[in-house]
Amino acid sequence: MNPVDLYNEAYTRRQFFRKTGTGLGVAAMASLLSQEGMAAGKPMGNMSIPQFAPKAKRAIYISLIGAPSQLDTFDYKPELKKRFKEDLKTYLAKEGERLTGMTAGQAAFPLAPSIFKFNQHGQSGTWMSELLPWQAKMADDICVIKSMHTDAINHEPANQLICTGSMVNGKASLGSWLSYGLGSMNEDLPSFVVLHAKHTSPFANVQAISSRLWGSAYLPGKYSGVSLRSLGDPVLFLQDSPGVPRELRRSMLDGLGKLNQKSYDAIQDPEIQTRMQQYEMAYRMQRSVPELADLSGESEHTYNLYGADSKNRGTFANSALMARRLLERGVRFVQIFHRGWDQHGDLPRDLASQCKDVDQGMYGLIQDLKQRGMLEDTLVVWGGEFGRTVYSQGALSETNYGRDHHPRCFSICMAGGGIKGGQTYGETDDMSYNITKNPVHIRDLHATILHALGIDHERMTYKFQGLDQRLTGVEPAKVVKDLFA
Fold this sequence. Notes:
- The chain contains 13 helices and 19 strands.
- Helix 8 runs antiparallel to helix 9.
- By secondary structure, the chain is of the alpha/beta class.
- The chain has one domain (34-483): Alkaline Phosphatase, subunit A, CATH 3.40.720.
- Strand 1 (43-44) and strand 2 (47-48) form a beta hairpin.
């Protein structure tokens, strides 16, 4: 028997309400109708997007997977040098420290001061490590949040929390929420694009990540991030097959669209519409992506801004340049993943290599956006999923140490999109262990990002399994308004 007939004979509750024209059916339909129709400026339930004047039209989120050490980059603690190798075992017990399985069995927890030099930069006097000489040049463009904290102590749940707002699987990602809420500004490219920058350090401890971090979960599939490849063609099958001219391909898609429309009319499954839209997007991307990926028109000045690596496909600098090109063409949200920041040992060597990978590219991106007049309405965020411990994991020497995971405090940077540059927000104690002023949870960061783009995080919801789902969940979250100029 035809699967469609089998489905219709089952006659689900949703179909009953859909086919009931009056009374209870109308009321039920109001709550069951797909919310897929929402896009930029269109009403959705009791809200419309954007809900107030946005400070940013688009955003870039740079995920430094593995978690860079705040103690060796932005959170300067000079007094720790006097306490080199002090055993913190009693202190940690008193604080009720959560230990990972990697350090729980250590006999001692020797305090490890950073071996890197720090200096103040810009008119703001922002403290930065010598590992970040290029970012130091734009200290007055950056806001450093030193009081971030999270609920997770291991990478997978921490990355899920910072990318989807929850440590539980099956939640929609930040980028998919923005794509859903704000829609696209270019019909020939996805509204949410993901780039994977390769690490050049031969020693990097690379964390595995999955598409859950950029997936749409219960939101319609068309809002998932589209991942562009760093090697070969950015998207597979960009070229038409031999013997299949564009006219024939167009005719095939039109015919397939009619068949899918019949299936949708019978079943009313929104994922059928998603499939139809993805076919059409793929067709349009055959024309738009080759032009996007062709960097031959970029000037030598631009290449010099991002650094020599910007000419090498897949590097962070090249990904940052590609991100700017995507934003120029109307992509709403770009997420760059750069892995290898998990320094449990040999931190001085490996962290220096990782910072060198991204430092000039980060500078180039901010300055390129700035000189093109795009920074003021482009929000840029970069950082890891949690912090690193003040004590050393394993052996400690004057020139070498490692650090374990630390969820209680870490640093994240923001620029553009109405963010006030040249400020340091929040404070930590003398060991970068606890937050002493202005804590910012992951939920607060998400609420602030949505606010910058004109969205009230409490009002942008999606009905799923009888609940109004939202990025910030049901626990309290606040917009950190002090970050804005």
